[in-house]
DNA sequence: GTCTATAAAAAGATAGAC
DNA sequence: GTCTATCTTTTTATAGAC
């Protein structure tokens, strides 16, 4: 008793999502026309408007969903020490982002193409994610395990370093992701540790 | 004696450069029309083509000039130890990039909008800059001062961390640039130092 | 849900007057 | 060197048939 034969919604919708991520990451949001997107999906341009009211909403949905996925996946580690929780965060951040290079790229590159209201929504979610790391660093500093001059700066510095992996890492390259994580964890750990 | 009265070349050219940097950084290369650029400059669209053969060449020139400025300003420090040269690099990198937020933003965001050939040219220059830091880290590791698993990864990790300052730092904010540099230097130093 | 066709606006780039 | 005017193409989005 399923859906009618003519309903391609649950096939076309994920295809649009995948194609948009790929093309926006490769060429940039403004450089990708709805025609080019439709061609990549395998439909005509007009059909896209069954799934999004306009191009802007399509971009916004991609970024919002990505941030929600990130926040949902970033479970608070139950480890007792801040050092262990930091290790967990580093491992999680690198793996999660390495799995979604297009989402991550778009999330950093195309914020400026969001409307003011949509930007504010995405920015709030991003801030929530940063707060997870900041809480770990604050706990470690309070316990005397970490030596950090300014917690907020340290948060941004660590996230920038970790997210930078995405600019060069490719699976099957010289180093495995495990090796990469090992070295980044070593650098992050040392950078915040007390003497 | 002087130039002819009708020649506005040395006035308009830098205005185009400044306007293009500002608009490309704010809205993205593909999202800025030649008409919008002309309006920002204060001329008509057709006049722009006295200064660039096309839009692509305009973008390429901005990025190429920026990388050449960077390489020229990044003088090799004569300090005897790798640690001192690293400190010099951190200070230089943060200051140089903080002074040119638009150039830096565009250099990371709009690489994908360059033609294959133009991209290769800019990429070669970027690689040369990375090599400056990598040489410092290699020297320090060879001397036993640094403990780094992979020099190339450490290079990219440090540059990503330092360039990340540009995503949030604003002059006149909570912290001075000197304070920011002090903390980043502390984190970078610790992250590469041997036990 | 997808198609064809089209409306209406905007794009990159050029020609020729001044 | 800049202007106005224009050519040609492409854009986002909609209407109506199937």
TrEMBL record, chains A, B:
One protein family per Pfam: TetR_C_24
UniProt KW keywords: DNA-binding, Repressor, Transcription, Transcription regulation
Domain HTH tetR-type: 10-70
UniProt key word DNA-binding: yes
Positions of the DNA-binding region: 33-52
InterPro entries, per database record: Homeodomain-like_sf (IPR009057), HTH-type_TetR-like_transc_reg (IPR050109), HTH_TetR (IPR001647), KstR2_TetR_C (IPR041490), Tet_transcr_reg_TetR-rel_C_sf (IPR036271)
Database matches in SUPFAM superfamilies: Homeodomain-like, Tetracyclin repressor-like, C-terminal domain
PROSITE patterns linked to this entry: HTH_TETR_2
PANTHER family named among the record's database cross-references: HTH-TYPE TRANSCRIPTIONAL REGULATOR RUTR, HTH-TYPE TRANSCRIPTIONAL REPRESSOR KSTR2
The name this protein goes by in its record: Transcriptional regulator, TetR family
Organism: Sulfitobacter litoralis
């Amino acid at each position: 008793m399923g859906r009618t034969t003519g309903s391609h919604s649950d096939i076309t919708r994920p295809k649009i999502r995948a194609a948009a991520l790929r093309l926006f990451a490769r060429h940039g949001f403004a450089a990708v026309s709805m025609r080019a997107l439709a061609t990549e999906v395998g439909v005509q341009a007009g059909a896209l408007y069954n799934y999004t009211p306009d191009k802007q909403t399509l971009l916004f949905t991609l970024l919002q969903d990505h941030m929600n996925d990130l926040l949902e996946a970033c479970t608070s580690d139950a480890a007792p020490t801040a050092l262990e929780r930091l290790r967990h965060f580093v491992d999680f951040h690198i793996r999660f982002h390495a799995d979604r290079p297009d989402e991550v790229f778009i999330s950093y590159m195309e914020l400026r193409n969001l409307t003011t209201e949509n930007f504010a929504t995405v920015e709030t979610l991003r801030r929530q994610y940063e707060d997870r790391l900041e809480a770990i660093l604050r706990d470690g500093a309070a316990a005397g395990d970490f030596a950090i001059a300014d917690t907020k700066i340290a948060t941004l510095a660590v996230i920038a370093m970790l997210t930078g992996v995405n600019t060069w890492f490719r699976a099957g390259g010289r180093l495995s992701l495990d090796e990469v994580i090992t070295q980044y964890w070593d650098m992050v750990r040392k950078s915040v540790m007390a003497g």
